[in-house]
Amino acid sequence: MIGWKIFYLLVFPGLLFTGVLGLIVGWVDRKLSARLQFRVGPPFFQNFNDFFKLLGKETIIVKDGIKSVFVAAPLAAFGFLVLISTMIGLALFFHEGFGGDLFVIMYLLMIFSVLVILGGSSTGNVYSSVGSGREIKLLLADELAFILICLIPIIKSGYQIQLRSILEVQSVQGPFIGSVSGAIAFIIGILCIQAKMALPPFHIPDAETEIVGGPFMEYSGPLLGFWQLNHYMMFVIFPFLLILLFLGGFNLHGIGIIWAVLKYLLIIVIMILIKNTNPRIRIDTALNFFWRYAAPLSFIGIILAVFGV
Amino acid sequence: MGWYNKRLAKSLWVFHVSGSPCNNCDIEILDLITPAFDVERFGLKLVGSVRHADVILLTGMLNQKIAPRIQRIYRQAPKPIFVVGVGTCVSSGCVFKDSYNISHDRDIIPIDLYIPGCPPKPEAMIAGVAKLIGVLNG
């Protein structure tokens, strides 16, 4: 049914749902951060206003840059995020999918970081290049730990590499976070998300006070709006992925809806609290943290998962 | 354009340019994002790059060395852009108006709104920005 596939991609788990929910959750992030700093914070429709305002501004194409990559990077990143959110949403809400879709999602998430690097380095600006270089190092830092924690649910579900099968095993056995290895993987997963979304304390690539926005410095108008939208869409994609892998997915019947919202808000609030209580760390500290502590810990989690703990 | 102007009025992103100031106005501008005055209520946000900006906050006495650079920053900004002159220096010259090195070119960049004061109080700056929002809302 080609009509339903277009509906999935453009409306429900895909573009419209993820975009609108992402902008709303972005407001939750800004409002909660403001309340934590004893400020009032922005009004509810702030992120929508920001996005529509940026759509109407002038786009300046840099003279010394590579124009095609400069324009294509944010749009391609947006397309990949819509694809990822559709795949995760289909597995989460409709229990559909294909063999190995978890690996495809891991690859597509890596492509998003690569597009940030390409977009930043295509401008010919010094600060953007520095930001792109830092993005490469951060990708090298968090990718190993992220792949290792994605392997733990695969092992615990009896070597199933389909998101749907992982959910089915969890609905029988209970969520994986109840076990030791699942809990370790969940905690490291939240830290990896923090690094992949470039949120504090890992906002090393786009450090506003230091390299004025990093890869996004030269972007203006609609292209900057799409980078903002991509950022807020990841507030939906990564928590949904963690819920799918470790918290047993959503049960959208009766009281289950409240549980679904609570699971989502739990992850969002943990992320915002980490964001507001930690200053930016240096790139070598980030590499040190992920390679010396997070990756070996998730490897221990894999060994525990193999023994069924 | 009315609909778009209302969106623009609700999310003015501010880029702060110091044109050789005594740094007094700059410190007062930073007061605006503290908990006491919090201009994020109106959707205002300080951004680091002029490419993201809708409003340029200009402080200080423009001298002959900084004037071409200010002009270049203005040309790099995406349109529509508004320029707000903060402090008495931008509007009338204050005590520096007879100095030997100030730029006598009055048309360096078009300034839309003056907020006088040496330095202006944060309340005065919020009142000025509210006037800009009011003009945009029609």
Features of the shown structure:
heterodimer, A: 309 residues, mainly alpha, 12 helices, B: 138 residues, alpha/beta, Rossmann fold, five-stranded parallel β-sheet, 5 strands, 15% strand, globular
Roughly how many Å apart are the termini of chain B? Answer: 11 Å
As laid out across the biggest beta sheet of chain B, the strand order is 2-1-3-4-5
In CATH, the architecture of chain B is: 3-Layer(aba) Sandwich
State the secondary-structure class of chain A. Answer: mainly alpha
Gross geometry of chain B = globular
Structural class of chain B: alpha/beta
Ranges of chain A where pLDDT stays below 50 over 5 or more residues in a row are none
Biggest β-sheet of chain A, characterized?
Answer: none
What is the number of beta strands of chain B?
5
Q: How many separate domains of chain B?
A: 1
Global Rg of chain A: 19 Å
Taking all Cα atoms into account, the compactness measure Rg of chain B is 15 Å
How far apart are the first and last residues' alpha carbons of chain A, in Å?
Answer: 42 Å
Q: Roughly what is the average pLDDT of chain B, rounded to an integer? A: 86
Number of helices of chain A: 12
Describe this structure as you would to a colleague.
The complex is a heterodimer of chains A (309) and B (138). Chain A has 309 residues and is mainly α. In chain A, 72% of the residues lie in helices and 0% in strands. Chain A is built from 12 helices and no strands. The radius of gyration of chain A is 19 Å and the shape is globular. Chain B has a single domain (11-137), classed as Rossmann fold (3-Layer(aba) Sandwich). Helices cover 34% and strands 15% of the residues of chain B. Chain B has helices at residues 2-10, 24-31, 67-76, 88-91, 122-137, and strands spanning 13-18, 45-46, 55-59, 82-86, 113-115. At the A-B interface, helix 3 of A face helix 1 of B.
